[in-house]
Amino acid sequence: MRLTGANSVMRLSGVLALTAALVGGPVSAHAYASDFTVPPVDPQHWQNQYDMTWADWKDIPGTNWNDPNGRPGERGLRIALVAVDFPDQPFVITQPKRSDPFGNPQIDPIQRADVPRFYHDFYLVPNEYNHGRTIHEYWMEQSRGRLGVEKMDTFGAYRLPRNLFEYGLNEFGQAGACPNGFTCNGNLDRDADTVWQADLAVRGIPCPDSKCGYNVVLRVYAGYDETSIWQEFGEMRFDSKEDIPDDWGPPASDTALPNWAPTRYVEWTSWRAAAQQWGQSSIRQAESSGTITHEMGHYFFDIGDNNNNPFSDRQNPPGPFHRVGSAPWDMMDRGSFNGPGGHHMRWVIPPNMGGWSPAGLMLRNRIHAGIVPAANVLEVSREALAGTGLVVATVTARAVDPGPDGTSGIKVRLDGPGRPDRTPDCDIGTDPFCHGNTGWDHYTLEVVDRMGFDSFTPDHGVIIAKNKTRESNTCGYNCFDWVIDANPGDIGLVDFRRPDGTPVMASIADHRQLNDAAFHAGLNSGSAYEWVDEPNRLHFYVIDVRRDAGGVLSYTLAVRSLDGSGPQRRGVRLGRPEVSGRPGGVALCTFPLTNTGQSGATPVDDVYRLSVSSRGRGWTAVLDNALATAAAGHTVAVPVYVSPAPGAAREATVTLTARSESDPAATRSLACTVGRRDTNGQ
């Protein structure tokens, strides 16, 4: 097997950790040098979406995907934008600045006749309102220029025949909140299409089918998407449903109705919030909706929602919460809510905060959508790995085109006899971390960096995910991406504070529980650098990290079978170390490590586990990485950092041990002598 993208030389990186200080035997490393640490070179720095601003946006080097004149190379989408308002709800964007009950619009008003063009430009043309970000740019970035918006024609503004609440109270058991004298069974899509097509007929414009020749009809409606306000103007604003005042309730003419109404996830929100329509992939978008890219993912690629319900059990807890699938790392999950301020900032109009910069698509979804070249995916077989030995590849951040010979990710098929996923059965009715055990058939490994539409993901790093080729409901919801959480403990975030100041913690099902899920290279990063799936007999490694001169991030990754390492002879040699001084009273022993395994006709990479010990009173030795990799016949450098405490012996002997992960019998150790003179005289 040719190991596409394998590194032949490992760049020294990782993070530094205390290992041992020996004085005639093991003692605590902190006994003599408690202040001896070296800063990590790949630290985990996850950030809460609440704290993000547009200053966090970072351009992808060498790209200009938001050029409105840039044409997609393979598929251009033709969209009809139909703008509609209601007798009881004018376009918010036409009202005086911050004049409506929700505090919108955020900009000076525009004329009603200009609304369709305003939203056309908001979606497609970089400007001051959208902070330069467009839906055309999103799809061009995800597809490397293959897919985008070719054309968006505007129609309207049209006035629909019924009030907004007659459409908005037509879902999620809300009919009982319909005011007396009205019937809340409106179909917004149908009525919008009816007035639009009637207008086309009057103007003599042919309409050969239900979409009048367009790929999709985008219905932009006045008011709010209920998904963007039900919580913010419900339980976050009012301590209880009885506390909701009349100005957030139904029309004054109906005194029998309460000021609250049911909503999708929980028992109640304010009536005014519940009366709004919920955006859907039909496609319809309120003025507050920033999730059009998510809805387009449903519509154009038949990719479903991968998100759970983290809310309902707060009011009625009949069963456990269910952990989220891919959360902030994927646009088809709650990554559709990424953007400055996160998901609680999706109520602003125009919708240029939370939700306006959704995460990129996970590798599974880009494969499903056909927008990642097969040549950029290293695909391996679980069964074959036992016979061929481990694979090593350099994987480039997913926002960046790695070129025809580069690697955007690794896919590991769970093939072989029996069911694909051999994880023991669990019960989603009792275990909130159970993803079910049917349908999972492959792993993916990919690199996320905070640039482009991944600028508002919570961290950079390596995302390991178990995936399904076909979607199914095994997680307590429809799921197909299951991110392996490098830090599975409760992240301990306050979701919001009630009006009385009571904190409401993010539940175990909250999407931000995966904010710290990325794997990082090296020791003491705050995250993990390897993952072992014992039932599926796989071992995943994050070996090295590199950022090139242009700012592009890549990681060296490896995958190994636990059932075999191939027929190749494995070996390792450590060469004479070089001793040098470093600032701060630190000496450096640099050991050449050579892969002496026999490759035959096929290059044989290997991964080596490193450890270090020291002998000498008051000396401490640390590694910056527990792993190294080298192709057969190639040499890499392994640094060991050594430091004396005050009063330490004049010299220390430092021993490095390297053990092949493929064959533990292939182990070598070598010593390095370090004196005070090697620490710049300190």
UniProtKB/TrEMBL annotation:
It comes from the Bacteria. Residues 1-31 form the signal peptide. Residues 404-425 are annotated as: Disordered. One of its GO terms (biological process) is proteolysis. This is M6 family metalloprotease-like protein. Residues 412-425 have a biased composition (Basic and acidic residues). One of its GO terms (molecular function) is metallopeptidase activity. The lineage of its organism: Bacteria, Bacillati, Actinomycetota, Actinomycetes, Pseudonocardiales.
